[in-house]
Amino acid sequence: MGDILFLAHRVPYPPDRGDKIRSFHMLRHLAAQRPVHLAAFADDPRDMDRPELADCTASRAIVRRGKSQAVAGIQALASGRPLSLTAFDDWAMRRAVEAVLARENIDTIFVFSSQMAQYLPAEGGQRVIMDFVDMDSAKFAAYAQAAKGPMRWIYAREARLLVAAETAVAARADASLFVSEAEAGLFRRTTGAERVHAIENGIDTGFFDPSARFERVEAGPALIVFTGQMDYRPNVEAVMWFAEDILPQIRVARPDARFAIVGRNPTDAVRALARQEGVIVTGEVNDVRGWLAAAALVVAPLKLARGIQNKVLEAMAMARPVVASAAAAEGVDHNGTIAVAETAGGMMEAVTLLLRDPQNAVELGRDARARVIARYGWDARLAPLDALVGLRARLGEAA
């Protein structure tokens, strides 16, 4: 029985953003049963050395990613390839992957995110598991529909080239994974691909537990919280929409309402929101749980969302009442334990009702945590992965 090579477009630690949460738990799950060799990019200097990964990796090859968007854009136009791929095309990573394949007995390659599929060997005979997570081409197609001028052409080009690349990778892979059945179904319908499976995200309900030990945040009774990576376009659009179109209406009924935008790398546009009455922009925080615990409620007003939103699961696990857009709630099997609103008026009304009725908010949060515990434990969510990677069959053969 051979080892696993795990390719990731970001170092899967710390698990403090959506993609790194999923990749970390995938990596740890696989490493519990077979040796795993990690090859990953670091876009943060702190990720060049993460000793915490030593317990779940047999070896690590980390490559610093420093290519600018301008250079990646020129390469994409010159090569006819998607910008999403040229941005992660790096000779040092190719050499690192080749070295692992030459040195180790690798019989399975687990590819996390489509950007890393370009490092698959032309010939090798290894089992290939491709975790697309979301269908990136569909995201860019949605961007194109909403854009105007040159950006419409750029996004449409990216969507067209990406779907061709995704189709080709899926044809080669032994299994293609997506974070929800909705994403998996969309991929099947769009590409005609077979061997497509949904492996949902989970949540560490021991860590995200309101009774756990963590640094508390002092806040008033009407704190509304949003969490996320704040240079990610859907998150930026979400908080701007909420702060500019929804929060002012809420503050008519609740002048003490405040909106905290919690997450690293806020763009200039997000930082500018802090000049608005009632808006807080924190930037990176050491532990998001303090802000979640302090929240009267958590909002997820995303207009564009793919798959299962970790931010929603985390808030539910922290027993917070959640008001989410239909897009943000779509992939979450919440069984009515979160409030869903389609419009700015609907979101304003849902938030205001919860602020007016703290007891109902507490009960909704309690039900949300119970739902997450029952439905989204990581062990249960990742159990189908074993058969796809061949763990159960091989363990059975060894017995």
Notes on the protein architecture:
The protein is an alpha/beta fold. It has two domains: 3-202 and 378-398, 3-Layer(aba) Sandwich (Rossmann fold), CATH 3.40.50.2000; 223-375, Rossmann fold (3-Layer(aba) Sandwich), CATH 3.40.50. The protein has helices at residues 18-31, 69-79, 83-86, 91-103, 136-146, 150-172, 181-191, 233-253, 268-272, 289-294, 310-317, 326-329, 344-356, 358-375, 378-389, 391-398; strands spanning 3-8, 36-42, 59-64, 106-112, 127-133, 175-178, 196-198, 223-227, 258-262, 279-283, 297-300, 322-325, 339-341. The strands form two sheets. It has a seven-stranded parallel sheet with strand order 3-2-1-4-5-6-7, sandwiched between helices. Strand 9, helix 9 (268-272) and strand 10 (279-283) form a beta-alpha-beta unit. Helix 8 (233-253) packs across helix 13 and helix 11 crosses helix 14 (358-375). The model is unreliable at 392-399 (pLDDT under 50).
